[in-house]
Every structure is written in structure tokens, then in C-alpha cells.
UniProtKB/TrEMBL annotation:
<dbReference type="InterPro" id="IPR015421">
    <property type="entry name" value="PyrdxlP-dep_Trfase_major"/>
</dbReference>
<keyword id="KW-0663">Pyridoxal phosphate</keyword>
<feature type="modified residue" description="N6-(pyridoxal phosphate)lysine">
    <location>
        <position position="204"/>
    </location>
</feature>
<dbReference type="InterPro" id="IPR000277">
    <property type="entry name" value="Cys/Met-Metab_PyrdxlP-dep_enz"/>
</dbReference>
<dbReference type="GO" id="GO:0030170">
    <property type="term" value="F:pyridoxal phosphate binding"/>
</dbReference>
<dbReference type="GO" id="GO:0016846">
    <property type="term" value="F:carbon-sulfur lyase activity"/>
</dbReference>
<dbReference type="InterPro" id="IPR015422">
    <property type="entry name" value="PyrdxlP-dep_Trfase_small"/>
</dbReference>
<protein>
    <submittedName>
        <fullName>Cys/Met metabolism lyase (PLP-dependent)</fullName>
    </submittedName>
</protein>
<comment type="similarity">
    <text>Belongs to the trans-sulfuration enzymes family.</text>
</comment>
<dbReference type="GO" id="GO:0019346">
    <property type="term" value="P:transsulfuration"/>
</dbReference>
<dbReference type="InterPro" id="IPR015424">
    <property type="entry name" value="PyrdxlP-dep_Trfase"/>
</dbReference>
<dbReference type="Pfam" id="PF01053">
    <property type="entry name" value="Cys_Met_Meta_PP"/>
</dbReference>
<dbReference type="GO" id="GO:0005737">
    <property type="term" value="C:cytoplasm"/>
</dbReference>
<keyword id="KW-0456">Lyase</keyword>
Length: 399
């Protein structure tokens, strides 16, 4: 059988301390040892199954991590308090002073700011490239390059990375391929396509209720243990640990991810096709017109569709803002950043989530002022939603 991420989550079995159908929540920051020797061994990383201190690991966090590792098909995983709390330790663990990163130029604003403004202070330089052009990526690799970094579906332009092609480059030059899969959980399984480490912001689709933050890195046991090492592990030492209570609530939401992703995808495809037919400049990987439609298709786990994210160009920032305000007034969604909520969320990335990217560079990468990013919700009646959206668009002169 083909790899199916949701079946792998389904196949996990947990019991709580008293036979509960959910695992018990570990409500402790620290853990007792029966012997002083075991405590020493645990610090040295040699006591399997012993808990030390909750910044290192907790039973609840390990349950969530194992479920996410099953989903991505990696050996194990480490959860963090936020997506950035997963991304920054991975990059800092893989790179030291003098090292170089080749990154997609269309990535999450926070990741971009970290690589552009923060890591140069530590002597780590990054070349930002058009990730859809493998020859350009290869040309940017230097003797000092350690990491290839991209998002499977990029934020906010929905460019699709050729993960197999990038993995081949990573192998050729002995680099680590790190893929942020936040926009396409279940849709794409990067580790199965050759990525070394797969990262998610759990804040988005995976948790899906916009009530908490979280992050994860999925990978091999050796690297994940390195991140957690008490002496030099970036996750352990930078300290963005997830709280056990949150880990348990995210695990419960993870169980409905497949149903939600299918509905997000179905609704987004419906709207994208309609908008495009109406003559709107629409970007959605499920559209034939998307430059990477075939590539996405070749990588996807078919039944989960093309994801819940699409963009529409409203022409100008003014029109985009007026339209978003009107759609919110009509309760079609919320003018908010983030994604993966039951309700549609929309924002103009040029002036919000991607504002870290200088205007010049925004232009160069095709991020126009009037671009609206939609995270399409779980609407039961998407035809009705469409009719209402079109009426808003006509009212503000976008259509
Ligand atoms: C939101 C997001 C992040 C950052 O995650 P936080 O949970 O906000 O720290 C990283 N990458 C992508 C693609 C995102 O959408």
C-alpha cells in the first residue's frame, strides 16, 4: 500500500493511566528518580524512558511528537511552543559561524527575517533564491552551504517546491534539506520525497482551532536527540518548550485533521475555479493555470486535495482592504493573519505577514500590493459563500 499519513495516525493506540481513551496529561515540570544514579544517567542522555525536566521532554509532548512523526513518516519528532520555536533551533543546530544557507525567497515572514536579519549576527549567511528553478538553487550552493531550506507550498505566493529535485541536490552536495510543510499537512509528505527534516507550525491547520500555538520538527532519532541534548541542543537551550496541556489538546485535534483538510481543499478548489472563471487573477495549486500544478500533482497524497490556501489579486491595496472589510462585515470570514481555521481568514500579505520583506524584493518575487491571501474555511455550503463573496467583489469594484 501507498503511504497514507492519516491512516498512520489512525493506527496509533494510546491509553490513559486509568485506561482512559486519551493518554493522561503529564501535569508536572519535574520528575522524581528512584535512584541518584538514574538521574545522572538521564542527564547524560543514557536512561531510556526516564523523564528529567519538562523543557527536555514530557510524556504528553512525546505522544504528540510520535503522532506527528507517524504522519510524516519519520523516525521521531520534537514539538515546540511555536512554529518559529521549531524552525530557529533546527537552523542553529545545523549551522555554525561561517556556514551558509540556500533558502527559498518566498518563505514565511518570520523565517525570512530570522535568516536575513538575525543569523548574520552569528556569522551565518543566507542566499535567497527562486526555489522553483533547480539550476538557480544549485548555482547558489557554496563550499560553506549546509542547509537547503524551503516550504513545500510557499507563503504567501503558493509556489511549489520540487522536493525530489531539491533532495537530489542536497544529497549531491551533502546538505540537509529542511522543508516547512505548514501549508500542506497530509497533502504532501516531504520526508517521503527525500526531505531530511519536516517542520510544521501546529498553530495553523494541524491544531485548526486558532486557540494555541505550537511547532514540530520531524526527523531521525539521532538529530532529534541532538536538538534535545542538555549540553548543546538548540531546542533544549533556547527553551521554546511546549506545555503538556497544549500537547494533549493538539493531539486531540490532530485526529480530525484528515476530515478538515479534505473540506478545506474541496472548498478552496471550488472557489478558485469560480474566481478564475470570473476573470480574477487567482492562484491555487489545484488550478491547471498554476505554474506548478503538475508538480504538486506528482507529489500529493491524492485524496487530500490541493490544500486550503489561495490568493486573489484585488488590483490595489485600497481595493483589497475595502473588500476584506466588507467580507468581514458580511461574516464571510475574518480579516486576520494565520490559517487553518474553520472560518475563512484573509489578509493582504504585502502589508502584514510578509511586511518583513522589503518592498523592492516583494515586487521582484511577484508579491503585488492588492494580493489577498485566503485560508478557506470549513463552510458547509460553499456555493452560498461564493455567491456572497462575488456580491462583495462587485460592490467594491474588484469584479
Ligand atoms: C505561521 C507559520 C510559521 C511560524 O509559526 P508560529 O507558530 O507562528 O511560530 C512558520 N512557517 C509557516 C509557513 C507559517 O505559516
Amino acid at each position: 500500500m501507498d503511504f497514507n499519513p492519516a491512516d498512520r495516525i489512525q493506527d496509533l493506540q494510546y491509553f490513559g493511566e486509568f485506561g482512559g481513551v486519551n493518554p493522561s496529561i503529564s501535569d508536572s515540570s519535574t520528575y522524581t528518580f528512584l535512584s541518584a544514579k538514574t538521574m545522572f544517567d538521564t542527564f547524560e542522555g543514557n536512561a531510556e524512558g526516564c523523564y528529567l525536566y519538562s523543557r527536555h521532554s514530557t510524556p504528553s509532548n512525546l505522544y504528540l511528537g510520535e503522532a506527528l512523526a507517524a504522519m510524516e513518516g519519520t523516525e521521531t519528532a520534537n514539538v515546540a511552543a511555536t512554529g518559529m520555536g521549531a524552525i530557529t533551533p533546527v537552523l542553529l543546530q545545523l549551522c555554525k559561524q561561517g556556514d551558509h544557507v540556500v533558502s527559498s525567497r518566498t518563505i514565511y515572514g518570520g523565517t525570512y527575517a530570522f535568516l536575513k536579519n538575525f543569523t548574520p549576527r552569528l556569522g551565518i549567511e543566507t542566499s535567497f533564491v527562486d526555489i522553483t528553478k533547480l539550476d538557480v538553487v544549485e548555482a547558489a550552493i557554496t563550499e560553506d552551504t549546509k542547509v537547503l531550506y524551503c516550504e513545500s507550498v510557499s507563503n504567501p505566493l503558493l509556489e511549489v517546491a520540487d522536493i525530489k529535485g531539491l533532495a537530489a541536490l542536497a544529497k549531491k552536495y551533502n546538505l540537509k534539506l529542511v522543508v516547512d510543510n505548514t501549508f500542506s499537512p497530509l497533502n504532501i509528505s516531504p520526508a517521503k520525497l527525500g526531505a531530511d527534516y519536516v517542520i510544521h507550525s501546529l498553530t495553523k491547520f494541524i491544531n485548526g482551532s486558532s486557540d494555541t500555538m505550537g511547532g514540530v520538527v520531524c526527523g531521525d532519532l539521532e538529530f532529534i536527540n541532538t536538538l534535545r541534548n542538555v549540553n548543546d541542543g538548540a531546542s533544549m537551550l533556547l527553551g521554546a518548550a511546549m506545555d503538556s496541556l497544549r500537547a494533549s489538546s493538539i493531539l486531540k485535534n490532530l485526529r480530525t485533521l484528515h476530515i478538515r483538510v479534505k473540506q478545506h481543499s474541496k472548498n478552496a478548489l471550488y472557489l478558485a475555479q469560480k474566481f478564475e472563471n470570473d476573470g480574477l487573477k487567482t492562484v491555487y495549486p489545484g488550478l491547471q493555470s498554476h505554474p506548478s500544478h503538475d508538480l504538486f500533482k506528482s507529489m500529493m497524497n491524492e485524496e487530500y486535495g490541493y490544500g486550503g490556501m489561495l490568493t486573489v489579486d484585488a488590483g490595489t491595496l485600497d481595493k483589497a482592504n475595502t473588500l476584506m472589510e466588507l467580507m468581514q462585515e458580511k461574516n464571510l470570514g475574518y480579516l486576520a493573519v494565520s490559517l487553518g481555521f474553520y472560518k475563512t481568514l484573509f489578509s493582504a500579505p504585502g502589508s502584514s505577514t510578509s511586511s518583513e520583506i522589503p518592498e523592492e524584493e516583494q515586487k521582484e518575487m511577484g508579491l503585488s500590493d492588492g494580493l489577498i491571501r485566503f485560508s478557506i474555511g470549513l463552510d458547509n455550503n460553499i456555493e452560498r459563500t461564493y455567491e456572497m463573496m462575488v456580491s462583495c467583489m462587485k460592490q467594491v469594484g474588484v469584479l
